[in-house]
Amino acid sequence: MNIYYLTSVMLFIIGFHTMLTHNNLLKKIMGMNIMDTSLFLFFVAIGYIRGGQAPILKEGVTLYVNPVPSALILTGIVISVSFTAFALALVVLLHKQYGTIDADKIIALRSKRHA
Description:
The radius of gyration is 20 Å and the shape is elongated. α1 (3-21) packs antiparallel against α2 and α2 (25-47) runs antiparallel to α3 (67-98). The chain is an all-alpha fold. It contains 4 helices and no strands. The protein has helices spanning 3-21, 25-47, 67-98, 103-114.
């Protein structure tokens, strides 16, 4: 089994576990980022070919690495960073509004206000 596939699966499980088991919103965002990273690693590992060269035509090179997964991952990284910045901005607003970043406490405070 490819070590990169195994590592990406382990990272995904760690990120998923972090998102599900923590009430702290910052930890949930970190878990989401770990899951993103695992997916990026998985897709880059799919496109990798051992001994392959960059897809630039040269004489004598017959084996090329697939550039599509790398290009897609660059787009994914930009989207991931943007989403993380947006999520962190929302966490800052939630902290200003409720004085905590604990999801359960925010839910309890919201239910008291609407009751």
